């Protein structure tokens, strides 16, 4: 069945609007999403940003990592989510090796932005990735950067480990954050880093910083939808919280998450490093 987003009274969330929220000190609520039905629920809960994450490889496809996710997978799920949204900003991940050079990154951007309804692309890493970011931004493809624990680098990192604990690593992350901003990124997801470091980076950047396992001082928060509903099989990350248990319904759980983020009540001390 084809699902279209219902008309929304909300004003559309835009990239400049997110920057303005940071300036005003208003927290940004972001969640992953993979289909039209959940997208409609997210829209109704006033979530600011929906992320079609390559995390779908693990929570939807049942794989051991995000690495097998293809651009075709991302295109399919981005189309589905776009049909359920009208005001919430839609961000889509570029999957592993789809942005290995500028030519491939441009082709991927054309699909996800031009054909599938995304408004922004998310890329992992800094270094050589800054060249890719700059090239996409020069071609009017908005970019969200992703630093800290970058799941596409799981083998190099030796697993899903907290990043930036040591002084040298923390300094490197700060420099990388400034570099992706300078390259033109309009948003930064910071995953699994010590809360004090995340606060330092959030204060240093002009662009909004969205934390996941990075403390309450970030400009906003993101969780994997299935984690915050408590339906992910196996052990969930320390930084996640099951909002469904006490809410009684998916709709109420989503609203509770948004309210907790807006009030800076989530994440709590038990969710950070």
TrEMBL record:
Necessary cofactors: Mg(2+)
Binding site for 3-methyl-2-oxobutanoate: 54-55, 93, 122
Self-association and partners: Homodecamer; pentamer of dimers.
Function noted in UniProt: Catalyzes the reversible reaction in which hydroxymethyl group from 5,10-methylenetetrahydrofolate is transferred onto alpha-ketoisovalerate to form ketopantoate.
Subcellular localization, as worded in the UniProt entry: Cytoplasm
GO biological process, alphabetically ordered: methylation; pantothenate biosynthetic process
Catalysed reactions, semicolon-separated: (6R)-5,10-methylene-5,6,7,8-tetrahydrofolate + 3-methyl-2-oxobutanoate + H2O = 2-dehydropantoate + (6S)-5,6,7,8-tetrahydrofolate
Chain sites annotated for binding Mg(2+): 54, 93, 124
Sequence intervals crossing the membrane: none
Alphabetical list of Pfam families matching this protein: Pantoate_transf
Keyword entries, A-Z: Cytoplasm, Magnesium, Metal-binding, Methyltransferase, Pantothenate biosynthesis, Transferase
Cofactor note: Binds 1 Mg(2+) ion per subunit.
PANTHER family: 3-METHYL-2-OXOBUTANOATE HYDROXYMETHYLTRANSFERASE (PTHR20881:SF0)
Cell membrane in keyword set: no
Active-site residues, record numbering mapped to chain: 191
CDD domains from the UniProt entry: KPHMT-like
Record InterPro entries: Pantoate_hydroxy_MeTrfase (IPR003700), Pyrv/PenolPyrv_kinase-like_dom (IPR015813), Pyrv_kinase-like_dom_sf (IPR040442)
Keyword hit for Repressor: no
Molecular-function annotations in GO: 3-methyl-2-oxobutanoate hydroxymethyltransferase activity; magnesium ion binding; methyltransferase activity
Family classification: Belongs to the PanB family.
Protein name: 3-methyl-2-oxobutanoate hydroxymethyltransferase
């Amino acid at each position: 069945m084809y699902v279209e987003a219902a008309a929304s009274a909300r004003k559309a969330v835009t990239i400049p609007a997110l920057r303005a929220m940071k300036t005003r000190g208003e927290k940004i609520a972001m969640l992953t999403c993979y289909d039209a039905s959940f997208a409609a629920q997210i829209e109704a809960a006033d979530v600011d940003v929906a992320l079609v994450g390559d995390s779908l490889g693990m929570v939807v496809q049942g794989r051991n990592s995000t690495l097998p996710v293809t651009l075709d997978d991302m295109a399919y799920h981005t189309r589905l989510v776009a049909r359920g949204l009208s005001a919430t900003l839609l961000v889509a991940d570029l999957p592993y090796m789809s942005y290995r050079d500028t030519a491939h990154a441009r082709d991927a951007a054309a699909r996800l932005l031009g054909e599938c309804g995304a408004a922004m692309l998310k890329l992992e890493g800094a270094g050589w990735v800054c060249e890719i970011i700059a090239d996409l931004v020069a071609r009017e493809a908005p970019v969200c950067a992703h630093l800290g624990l970058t799941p596409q680098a799981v083998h190099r990192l030796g697993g899903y480990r907290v990043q930036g604990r040591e002084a040298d690593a923390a300094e490197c992350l700060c420099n990388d954050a400034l570099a992706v901003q300078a390259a033109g990124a309009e948003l930064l997801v910071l995953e699994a880093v010590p809360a004090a470091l995340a606060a330092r980076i959030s204060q240093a950047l002009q662009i909004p910083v969205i934390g996941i396992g990075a403390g309450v001082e970030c400009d906003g928060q993101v969780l994997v939808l299935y984690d915050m509903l408590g339906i992910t099989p196996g052990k969930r990350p320390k930084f996640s919280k099951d909002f469904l248990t006490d809410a009684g319904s998916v709709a109420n759980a989503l609203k509770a998450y948004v309210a907790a983020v807006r009030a800076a009540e989530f994440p709590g001390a038990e969710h950070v490093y």
